[in-house]
Design goal:
It is built from nine helices and three strands, in the order αβααββαααααα. By secondary structure, the protein is mainly alpha-helical. The protein folds into two domains: 71 residues, Arc Repressor Mutant, subunit A, CATH 1.10.10.10; 145 residues, GntR ligand-binding domain-like (Four Helix Bundle (Hemerythrin (Met), subunit A)).
Length: 236
């Protein structure tokens, strides 16, 4: 029992670190993930690495190819279009259900998450091209809080997984949230107001627009060829 628990702990830790390296850009889209290298770099067994990759594949952050093994999910226009369509339909549905089913405790969590997001620094002098880690965490927590009132756990899990996949694209965008004609804080405030105001139709509509607007920006970083290790795509 103790041995099994220790194995799960190592797998969980491996999953957390590898996921962080992917979303943090330290492992680039298209990079091969080889078991011997992963075992050495993260100090885990091949079995733990395999289990962690299986979980990441279910989250859409890595892909398995026959005879080639695993790789960080490449960015492509086709994939982003499919992902956006799925998110628009599913996440707006889950938000609608959240508005209709959520209780007052859910409302308070959503308001608190927005409060933290509003006060998180968006950019830093160290990296003026990308949102800060603090803002990224607060942003993810806010969107998760909005849909957490949904009582259908399966739909909620799907919506969360799709957001994780979209995060991979956002991490590689050099201008997310910096478009001169976009009021990102205003979009978040309007989403919160419609949600806690129990206007399910408006909340779903605003979220659909919010997702689609972001996707139009992210298409600039998508490529139909995997990026090679060490290469970082910039806007053209």
């Amino acid at each position: 029992m103790a041995k099994e628990k220790a194995s799960r702990t190592r797998t969980d830790e491996m999953h957390r670190k590898l996921r962080g390296d992917i979303l943090g850009g330290r492992l680039v889209p298209g990079a091969r993930l080889k078991f011997p290298e992963l075992s050495e770099n993260y100090g885990v067994s091949v079995g733990a690495a395999r289990e962690a990759l299986t979980r990441l594949a279910s989250e859409g952050l890595v892909k398995s190819q026959p005879h080639l093994g695993y790789m960080v999910t490449p960015l492509s226009h086709e994939d982003l279009a499919d992902l956006t369509r799925a998110r628009v339909e599913i996440e707006s549905l889950v938000l609608r259900m959240s508005v209709l089913e959520g209780d007052v405790h859910w409302e308070s969590r959503a308001i608190a998450a927005h409060h933290v997001l509003e006060r998180a620094p968006f950019l830093s002098d160290e990296d003026p091209d990308h949102p800060t880690y603090e803002w990224e965490v607060a942003h993810a927590a806010f969107h998760m809080a909005l849909i957490d009132g949904c009582t259908n756990r399966r739909l909620l899990d799907v919506a969360r997984s799709l957001r994780d996949e979209a995060e991979l694209y956002r991490q590689w965008s050099v201008s997310f949230g910096q478009e001169p004609d976009r009021d990102l804080p205003g979009e978040h405030r309007a989403l919160l107001d419609a949600t806690v105001g129990r206007n399910a139709d408006l909340a779903a509509h605003l979220l659909r627009d919010h997702i689609a607007h972001t996707a139009q920006l992210l298409i600039s970083v998508a490529t139909d060829e995997p990026l090679v290790a060490g290469e970082r795509r910039t806007n053209r």
